Amino acid sequence: MKPVSQDGPRSLTRRGLLSGAVGLAGAAATAAKADSLLDVPPRGPGAPLSARSERSKYVQIARIPESTPGKRPVDPSEAINSKAPIDKLVGQITPADLHYERSHSGVPDIDPAQHRLLVHGQVKKPLVFTMADLRAMPSVSRIAFLECTGNGWENWKEAPPDLTVQNTHGLISTNEWTGVPLSYLIDLVGVDRRSTWMLAEGGDGSAVARSIPLTDEIIAEGILAYGQNGEPLRPAHGFPLRLFLPGFEGNLNIKWLRRLKFGDRPFMTRWETARYTQLQADGKARQFQLHQDVNSVITRPSGMMQIKPGYHRICGLAWSGHGRITRVELSTDGARTWRDATIVGVALPKAQTRFEADWVWDGKPTRIVSRSTDEKHNVQPDRASLIARTGTNALFHYNAQQTWAIDETGKVRNVLA
Ligand SMILES: Nc1nc2c(c(=O)[nH]1)N[C@H]1C(S)=C(S)[C@@H](COP(=O)(O)O)O[C@H]1N2
Ligand SMILES: [Mo]
């Protein structure tokens, strides 16, 4: 990665921000005014300490429950997913209560003391594990994203102009996941060498079940997770046990995991025959498109925000199911010219990665767009090339560059390109 515009933005940040020349006039205070800020009586006792802390009452931040694309607002009882407020989150980790949720038949109430995991099929001996058994095994923790394959589906066919980035891209979150390495369990139960597939089944009403190919990558990275951001899984995310497969489509990450069955071919559940397939332009369906592809989106400024001419810090997220993000480029002139954004912090493999760049908006209508590249040299496609490859029958795996149009009043809107 070559941080091309390091010098430019740096000097712009210091001089531009403080002089107010580019818009943030309030940042500079006179010495006299600054002293008077200390001239107030000390505060009295604050709120008592509590068993659990809550968000500040000044912070309004929530997920939005939604149903199929285009249907909104939605009655929460009809919601099929609930999207993360990625425009309001500021770091790389999603708080557990704001992690996006996709549940096909609601959230079951499972007593961990009663929960069992059955492991059977082509194994030396079928075994049943309790949660205590699993907690006694070696553990790993990993920070990685989870993304629903439906993320971005709002824009397959048209671009509703009034969408926020929470609507268009809120089906991704990044947490730290803790649990038993899948490889440990596979060795423990003595999975037959001829086993090339694993069925994972959930204990919810719809018993979502998927066939997972036992590739080296999945065996090495899969986790039977019981922990999320340092605490037991939340019920919405699979309590007490879920499968976590970094970089692979959300649907494979079976929640409320109750069964793993090993075999030498895919089990062809309805979830991979009728549901999570991709209808292509020629009318044939593609099965088992399992990796989440390289992607990125500008979260600020983004859909339905109102901006003023002058200085802006463009912020966004990039991620790839194939590994680390190595580069994020940015265009503020509708994809005609590009420059590199700065990657903030450490770009972890298969985790949300933040990017930033300075920008002075001259007040003229324009379009802003980001484009990411991962360590496997996958480059996020523009919409025209994605559609040329896939047609518009598809519903899943939309990873085209996201364009935001800004009009002369400073209103930001969702557009196709
Ligand atoms: N048992 C079960 N597992 C499931 C689902 C479900 O409905 N039931 N939804 C799947 C889908 S489509 C996605 S995108 C992810 C969502 O995980 P989250 O709700 O923790 O974000 O879980 C997957 N695992
Ligand atoms: Mo999903």
TrEMBL record:
List the GO molecular function terms.
heme binding; molybdenum ion binding; molybdopterin cofactor binding; sulfite dehydrogenase activity; sulfite oxidase activity
| Oxidoreductase molybdopterin-binding domain boundaries | 104-271
The first-level EC class reads: oxidoreductase
Source species: Rhodopseudomonas palustris
Q: Sorted alphabetically, which NCBIfam families does this protein's record hold?
A: sulfite_DH_soxC
One GO BP annotation of this record: sulfur compound metabolic process
**Key words of the record:** Metal-binding, Molybdenum, Oxidoreductase
Provide the cofactor list for this protein.
Mo-molybdopterin
Q: Where is the Moybdenum cofactor oxidoreductase dimerisation domain?
A: 291-396
A Pfam family it matches: Oxidored_molyb
InterPro entries per record: Ig_E-set (IPR014756), MoCF_OxRdtse_dimer (IPR005066), Mopterin_OxRdtase_euk (IPR008335), OxRdtase_Mopterin-bd_dom (IPR000572), OxRdtase_Mopterin-bd_sf (IPR036374), Sulfite_DH_SoxC (IPR030835), TAT_signal (IPR006311)
Kindly list the residue ranges recorded as spanning the membrane: none
The protein's gene is named soxC
Supply the name of the protein. Sulfite dehydrogenase
Q: What is its EC number?
A: 1.8.2.1
Where is the region Disordered?
A: 36-56
